[in-house]
Amino acid sequence: MPVKILMPALSPTMTEGTLAKWLVKEGDTVESGDVIAEIETDKATMEVEAVDEGKIGKILVSEGSEGVAVNEVIALLLEEGEDASALDGADTSSASVGGGDAEPAAEAPKQEASKPEAAPAKGLAPAAPVSGGDRIKASPLARRIAANEGVDLGKVEGSGPRGRVVKRDVEAAMSSKPADKAASAAASSAPAGEKPAAAPQAPAASGWNPDLTGLPEYEEIPNSSMRKVIARRLTQSKQQVPHFYLTVDCELDNLLATRKQLNEKAGEGVKVSVNDFVIRAASIALKRVPAANAVWTDAAILQCKQQDISVAVAIEGGLITPVIRNAGGKGLAEISTEMKALAGKAREGKLKPEEFQGGTFSVSNLGMFGIKEFSAIINPPQGCILAVGAGEQRAVVKDGALAIATVMSCTLSVDHRVVDGAVGAEFMAEFKKLIEDPLSMLL
């Protein structure tokens, strides 16, 4: 029987998506790992690849279709020995697979194996690099998780079709590690801007029906998937996270002078921004105050050992937070180059999930818009987000006399469940020292 190709769940919050483009047509032969479509999610446009080999028998969802539900059958794949006649009467019903799992539906337990008339359901998997010499049968998602978590696939017993290693097999192997490694894994896999499994559900944004009486003529702009996710996440954060705020004023004159000297001596294509200094300073401050580098779960506070900085980037229709991994171990030039590349991919909608999921601390900078000071909403399950305002000349008191200095106001929004006031204040004190003594960041 033909194999079902399903609409994949490419992020934990994805319930539907847009089939942006087919890269194959009916009659084309595909192999496992071939990229066959582009799917637009609430976060980005992603390439997806075939799990099994065969011939594209029938495309059921045309490209450009919006609101395609996760696990809806989008095409049928003819396996070896099958021809077009096998498509007659083929089952095209959607598979019953738990939402939010990016694993192909075929790799769920075979609960209906006794029904020979039902076609096996196969999905799409996010494209991921695979070692050419690796003969281990594993789904792309399982390979990516294993690579990120240091799991040896050769020691994992597969429960998928023909012994294929799938997501749940890797997760089972991870759960057998010592408790401290399991906690670290949970922290590193907690998506930035996404809800961890233990977090409570947010109220449905669709329940908001304001009174529109008396409004002037208006244009109705339908809410995109991204806007719906943003609304749900921000409502959840403000309603369920106990925010408090800490603000410091940082003098920037030394930093601006250092930045100018660095950019004059930097190689071609490297131009360090004030925001790069902010990211660097935040990561070093987190090293010095590790209690601020933590995320919340109902079971435990997870204090992360690596500083993965989520940086808010405005894109059409919303915003996204690409992550600078291990920012505490990178210099200014490396942070600058990586941030420019991630921001460019974000605006083009080409970020991969691993480039925007995770993160232990967030930075949001509106200084380029002339915003003096603001308070950002925390990005659960993270414990803190730093809001950065514009640098402007202000009157300050130095040695008992008035003087002029370039000053930048920064406000830390803190989840009081994770970080106490004294810890937040200690972090801000370290951050201020670093910003006002930029040479210390270069050591």
Automatic annotation (TrEMBL):
<protein>
    <recommendedName>
        <fullName>Acetyltransferase component of pyruvate dehydrogenase complex</fullName>
        <ecNumber>2.3.1.12</ecNumber>
    </recommendedName>
</protein>
<dbReference type="InterPro" id="IPR011053">
    <property type="entry name" value="Single_hybrid_motif"/>
</dbReference>
<dbReference type="Pfam" id="PF02817">
    <property type="entry name" value="E3_binding"/>
</dbReference>
<dbReference type="InterPro" id="IPR004167">
    <property type="entry name" value="PSBD"/>
</dbReference>
<dbReference type="InterPro" id="IPR006257">
    <property type="entry name" value="LAT1"/>
</dbReference>
<feature type="compositionally biased region" description="Low complexity">
    <location>
        <begin position="116"/>
        <end position="129"/>
    </location>
</feature>
<keyword id="KW-0450">Lipoyl</keyword>
<feature type="compositionally biased region" description="Low complexity">
    <location>
        <begin position="172"/>
        <end position="206"/>
    </location>
</feature>
<dbReference type="InterPro" id="IPR000089">
    <property type="entry name" value="Biotin_lipoyl"/>
</dbReference>
<feature type="domain" description="Peripheral subunit-binding (PSBD)">
    <location>
        <begin position="137"/>
        <end position="174"/>
    </location>
</feature>
<dbReference type="Pfam" id="PF00364">
    <property type="entry name" value="Biotin_lipoyl"/>
</dbReference>
<dbReference type="InterPro" id="IPR023213">
    <property type="entry name" value="CAT-like_dom_sf"/>
</dbReference>
<dbReference type="InterPro" id="IPR001078">
    <property type="entry name" value="2-oxoacid_DH_actylTfrase"/>
</dbReference>
<comment type="function">
    <text>The pyruvate dehydrogenase complex catalyzes the overall conversion of pyruvate to acetyl-CoA and CO(2). It contains multiple copies of three enzymatic components: pyruvate dehydrogenase (E1), dihydrolipoamide acetyltransferase (E2) and lipoamide dehydrogenase (E3).</text>
</comment>
<feature type="domain" description="Lipoyl-binding">
    <location>
        <begin position="2"/>
        <end position="78"/>
    </location>
</feature>
<dbReference type="InterPro" id="IPR036625">
    <property type="entry name" value="E3-bd_dom_sf"/>
</dbReference>
<dbReference type="InterPro" id="IPR003016">
    <property type="entry name" value="2-oxoA_DH_lipoyl-BS"/>
</dbReference>
<feature type="region of interest" description="Disordered">
    <location>
        <begin position="85"/>
        <end position="135"/>
    </location>
</feature>
<feature type="region of interest" description="Disordered">
    <location>
        <begin position="172"/>
        <end position="218"/>
    </location>
</feature>
<dbReference type="InterPro" id="IPR045257">
    <property type="entry name" value="E2/Pdx1"/>
</dbReference>
<comment type="subunit">
    <text>Forms a 24-polypeptide structural core with octahedral symmetry.</text>
</comment>
<keyword id="KW-0808">Transferase</keyword>
<comment type="similarity">
    <text>Belongs to the 2-oxoacid dehydrogenase family.</text>
</comment>
<keyword id="KW-0012">Acyltransferase</keyword>
<dbReference type="Pfam" id="PF00198">
    <property type="entry name" value="2-oxoacid_dh"/>
</dbReference>
